Amino acid sequence: MASVRVAVRVRPMNRREKDLTAKCIIKMEGNKTSITNLKIPDGNAGEVLRDRIKTFTYDFSYDSMDSKSSPFVSQEKVFKDLGSDVLRAAFEGYNACVFAYGQTGSGKSYTMMGNPGDAGLIPRFCEGLFTRIAATTRWDEASFRAEVSYLEIYNERVRDLLRRKSTQTYNLRVREHPKDGPYVEDLSKHLVQNYSDVEELMEAGNINRTTASTSMNDVSSRSHAIFTINFTQAKFDSEMPSETVSKIHLVDLAGSERADATGATGVRLKEGGNINKSLVTLGNVISALADMSQDGGNTNLKKKAVFVPYRDSVLTWLLKDSLGGNSKTIMIATVSPADVNYGETLSTLRYANRAKNIINKPTINEDCNVRLIRELRNEIARLKALLVQGNQIALLDSPTALSMEEKLHQNEARVLELTKEWTNKWNETQNILKEETLALRKEGIGVVLDSELPHLIGIDDDLLSTGIILYHLKEGQTYVGREDASTEQDIILHGLDLESEHCRFENQNGKVTLVPLGGAQCSVNGVQVTERSQLNQGAVILLGRTNMFRFNHPKEAAKLREKRKSGVLSTFSLSMTDLSTSCENLSTVMLYNPG
Amino acid sequence: MASVSSDEWRAICDKFTNAQNLTVVDSQNDPDNDPFRSKYKARELLREIYCSLKSFEAGEGEEETGESGETVETGETGESGEQLPVEAPVDGQTEEAFSQGFCGDSPAGLRAAKLGAVEYYLGVNHVDTEELSAGQEHLMNCMKLLGKCRVSSENVSLFIHARNQLGILWAGRDETETAQGFLETAESIYQRYMKEDGSPPTDMADYFSTEENQLTHQERTKRFELAYTHTMYYLAQVYKNLGETERAAIYCHSTLQRQLKLNQFSPMEWALNAATLSQYYITKGRYMEGRHCLSAATVISGLAGEVPSEAAAQESETESERREQLRQKRAEIARCWIKYCLNILQDSKKLLEDSIGELDTDHTFDSIASLEEKVRCLLPMDFTEARAIFLVGQHYVTQAKEYFQMDGYVTDHIEILQDHSSLFRSLAFYEEDLDRRCKMHKRRVDMMEPVCMELNSKYYLMIRRQMMFELAETYNEMMDLKLTLANRQDETESLDNHTIKKFNNLCSASAKYFQMFLDSLCSPEGKQPEHLEEEVLRPALVARFRVARLYSRLICTSPPGQVENLDKSLEHYKYVVDYCDSHPEAVATVETELELSREMVGLLPLKINRIKAKIPANN
């Protein structure tokens, strides 16, 4: 079963509601529960209808309004759905927790305790427990021990409801033990043999519970109460003695209509629109804010973990082991069907709707394993290469395959170098910046000039030169030559061995080609070119003997970067010695990569 | 009230004083089974006062119509005591309140204010005793009476108080916008009054006290300002409920500031609230505000005085409780500081990792503030800066652990340990010396390993899982560092035996903790879960994936050993693939890992076969 399940149950109209000729506003279909606001007139569609009828989905919606109708859900059915799973879980060694929540008079006691001859969840559960114990003991499979304790939390103080008169009972301390878990110091425990023992203790405890009469409600409980069954099974597991302990908590939550002295109803249960009156509760509000911003936003992003001190936490604290993971939890909310209770019922339904989120689930925070993924991608690439080459001795990643990215690497280092120079000379750039395709941004202490178009950056050795030259290579042709050329040149240069019509750059569909004209001296990456030659990102171009440029192609570079990020290209420059050992042990080698 | 004899008036004043005493003092001591006893009594007195005031009025021949304190009956409106009104009222305009109606100090104005005050007290009384509809009626009667008056020093306090109460009432019905309307009007009335008049306003209690008992100006101001502090606080909650967290935080901040300024706070409460507010700012990356709140928290918590000694605590219950409170809250403030240090380190690390040079430089303008303090609010850029923050964090770790000891506070203690470990991890990022970096990770292992083994899974399952995962990752990190170090020192030849042994130990330790994590998902009988719960789905598959990787990295010279390791590796990769095939909903959570696992499931057999092919040759 899922670790948390939420059910809502509606009771029949009571006498009082009938006397007031109250109307039924609750409807259940499948696992959905709808509530109608009769104050909003019927007959409209859309927005208004949504306001009039609100629908919630739970794990179970139990209609117990009319025992004669067919959808009527009996005590038996509720137990079968919810109780028997918890019971099984307890025998398997899980902790279990049953929460009951609802306005006074909404049928909470009926669901939990039931009436004579129509037993509720708790008696059925206990009966199941003891029946199974008896059966297992008869077969001598295991021996059992069950102890109960009963406490209440009132105004954040813990009180033993099964106290013996002489002992101190108020404000017991809640503590945690590394081996034994959360516990209440000095809380009395009582051995039980059967359900009637349990019943007796429960009744005794109920008498001690803090109850209050108001002009609204005859008797209503203003405290949370926790009835705990500690359940130990001892058996031999393949000759080894083994002991399993399960805790079963039955929790009666303080009704939602009441607030304790601090204005908080505990367990962060009461959200909704309520305003706390007293400034004493300012802390709760601030905590909630910190909590909201901690949980909110994009769930894919790693949350920022902060520390939020809670003031109303005794219940959450005590149930940590039940709410924290290795337990099975059921939450039952009970409601009245009558329109006179619209407000309370709606708030109960809303609360139940959020109930799953209340269970505090610590999550595992992983380190990002980007590096691991990168390594593995490399290995996959190598293994694939192996596959391609069959059983021959594998030539793993050849240096040529690496050269492209390596170059990009080196080039990027050079860009950094260049930008440093630029910072000293950036006056000129303001003019260039007026062009739309250029952008200037700060990078650390450096300045980076971004351009979207392919371009040439002048590299010159002249110590007296203070400017940086950037030539855009527009779509189409860009001619390079001297001032004295017969046709107008796009880029005008002078220098040793620079011809009047030296060369042209062709930019077609994002591909840039250098075309030397009439045997003019052109070289790319130190190699003389006489034919058309396509340029790649980072190419160093020498025109004549003194005009040196670096060719940048931002779009191509962006693609390469993207590839590198996704690991399609291996960015690790593996040394050859490493590669040879990799044949034997492909995966053991990795080089340090800062960051 | 010329026609009222002074005796009659004195009687009314006495009744009012009694009613106030019953409401404020006696009600505190009402028994748990009759919690509203005193308030019910106070209600009767207020009703009598109301009747008297009306009868004076009748005597004066000035009949008022429309309002009546008597028509509202109690407790008949159904089980919940609440009938939702058909439509929510909308609050009037501030402008009108200042320009229309009786002068506040005219006889008619004073009369309206007094009647309004009684209606107000009756309204609060009903609300306090969970009779909201009746309470609302009284409060609206009060508003109606005030509607006849112009805002002035005689009645401005009532203007604010009544709206505060209506704000609470409507918010309780989830009619947040209506509540917001009342409270924002209260806010603007206050501001306008302070701007245009500002003299200490009459408190409502003054309406019903004899001359010799009138409040001092100082006391009037104090009460008025406190009412407005409440308005701020209620608005904070309204904004919070509307999801406007930013605005809510500002109003919480104002509330705290006003408490401090008006000297109406208890130091420990205040300090803890300020510390908590810092956590909000931290989540927003606003470290300067966060640090400001934390520094204020530390300073103000000092005002709460010394922690009583253990001996003193044993002598008296009060001292014992005080000792507990002071120690706990100071430890909690320390934990807020730890998170500050941790988050600032992590934020900076994240930015440095993502791309150098996109650091937010906005904060540089706050240099003045950062000079004042011992800890920086700017993101650290290098080891020295990071270490300074780390040390502050570590200082607070020590402080917090003094109170949150393992025995008694397991969960808290471990959370602090985890933070300490994270501080080390963040610092290691800045450490360039790999050997020292490795030692920092070793410190993390040393602090977590024994604790993880000591804890009972039964009660601390999730915490143990977190620790197992973190230990596995830490060992993995150390393994990588060791290898990098070895490769760096000895680039020519393959690894020496000593290094291989170390490497394998770290590799196995990492795999062991991932495996332990996976085992923790099994049922109590040790059965593998068929279905992984949402919150462990990704960690479980990632753990498999990583174990698979670790097995393939173990260095082993014998081919059969290699095959054995690779078989295990393959098995774990297969699990990831098979699980995702049978649970398509899992695919989205582990896309990359799944893709790689699929590849490996296809390719690893090839590698295994190649090694196997060599085995007979070697034999």
UniProtKB/TrEMBL annotation, chain A:
GO cellular component, one term: microtubule
Example GO molecular function: microtubule binding
Cellular localisation: Cytoplasm, Cytoskeleton
Gene Ontology BP annotations: microtubule-based movement
Pfam families linked: FHA (PF00498), Kinesin (PF00225)
Keywords attached to this entry: ATP-binding, Coiled coil, Cytoplasm, Cytoskeleton, Microtubule, Motor protein, Nucleotide-binding, Phosphoprotein
Binding site for ATP: 102-109
Kinesin motor domain sequence ranges: 3-358
Coiled-coil ranges (or none): 373-421
Major subcellular site: cytoplasm
Name the record gives this protein: Kinesin-like protein
Organism, scientific name: Dissostichus eleginoides (Patagonian toothfish)
TrEMBL record, chain B:
Organism, scientific name: Dissostichus eleginoides
Stretch list, region Disordered: 58-85
Coiled coil: none
Family from the record: Belongs to the KIF-binding protein family.
Keyword Cytoplasm: yes
Compartment(s) where it occurs, according to its Swiss-Prot or TrEMBL record: Cytoplasm, Cytoskeleton
GO biological process: central nervous system projection neuron axonogenesis; microtubule cytoskeleton organization; neuron projection maintenance
Function recorded in the entry: Activator of KIF1B plus-end-directed microtubule motor activity. Required for organization of axonal microtubules, and axonal outgrowth and maintenance during peripheral and central nervous system development.
Protein name stated in the entry: KIF-binding protein
Alphabetically ordered keywords of this record: Cytoplasm, Cytoskeleton
Domain of life from the UniProt record: Eukaryota
Record field: compositional bias (Low complexity): 68-82
A cellular component annotation (GO) from this entry: cytoskeleton
InterPro entries noted in UniProt: KBP (IPR022083), TPR-like_helical_dom_sf (IPR011990)
Alphabetized PANTHER family for the sequence: KIF-BINDING PROTEIN, KIF1-BINDING PROTEIN
